[in-house]
Design a protein that fits this description.
Largest sheet: none
Number of helices: 8
Helix content: 55-70%
Structural class: mainly alpha
Shape: globular
Radius of gyration: 15 Å
Distance between the termini: 24 Å
Oligomer: single chain
Order of helices and strands: HHHHHHHH
Length: 152
Amino acid sequence: MFDVLVYLFENYYQADAYPDHDTLSRKLHAAGFENEDISEALDWLNGLAQFKESDLPQSLDTSVSHRAYTNDELAKLSTEGRGFLVFLESARVLSPLLREVILERAMVLAEDVVGLEKLKLIALMVLWARKGSVDALILEELLPDGEKHQLH
């Protein structure tokens, strides 16, 4: 699934949107991705698109409070990943509201543990979906290690 998300970002980052679900499925299949990975990635993206920020307190958008994690979040999110989210917030790349969107998207994954690299990709996808401006240095930091050279 994550390879599909990286592919989508690399191929549609400059565009305002990607094609409709059926066209995108065909293009991803033609690019060599498996049907299961395509379905998982598109379902995950649909969940991101349907996430209602209005379900979260609006005060989160301007909050500067500390985030305490639940036991389930502590078990699922790596220490490095949680630290990276703190870094992104302190660098003002993420608002507390976007942090919560990232956490929600990470928690719906089937994996037992979501490590740093996957959390970086989730953050990248959330920022992209929310049309956030991403500084080039932060963008380099968010991309998986093997993918950094492809956007130049």
